[in-house]
Design brief:
By secondary structure, the protein is of the alpha+beta class. It is built from three helices and three strands; from the N terminus they run βααββα. One of its GO terms (molecular function) is DNA binding.
């Protein structure tokens, strides 16, 4: 006689583990959801994905965007310093 093993219960998928909602990101950055919406419209903020009416950001994409903002600031400071070094014309 063979014993029938009960069906193994599968772990629920956590499909959004690597994603953060717009509300969560706004709180994390100290911004409003409206600011993130404006950035999305102007394409100046981190890339996002829409699922229905919900907006999600990939955590790695947000980190990369933050690092890019830091790099842009450094590059802009270098350009500004070289312009000022020559004095008035």
């Amino acid at each position: 006689m063979q014993s029938i093993a009960p069906a193994a219960q599968e772990e629920p998928l956590n499909l959004l583990a690597d994603w953060i909602s717009r509300d969560q990101l706004a709180r994390e950055l100290g911004l409003t959801c409206d600011t993130l919406s404006r950035w999305e419209a102007r394409q100046i903020g981190p890339a996002c994905t829409r699922i229905g009416r919900k907006v999600f950001y990939r955590r790695d994409t947000v980190r990369a965007w933050l690092l890019a903002q830091e790099q842009q600031r450094k590059d802009a400071a270098k350009r500004g310093a070289s312009r000022r070094a020559g004095g008035r014309r």
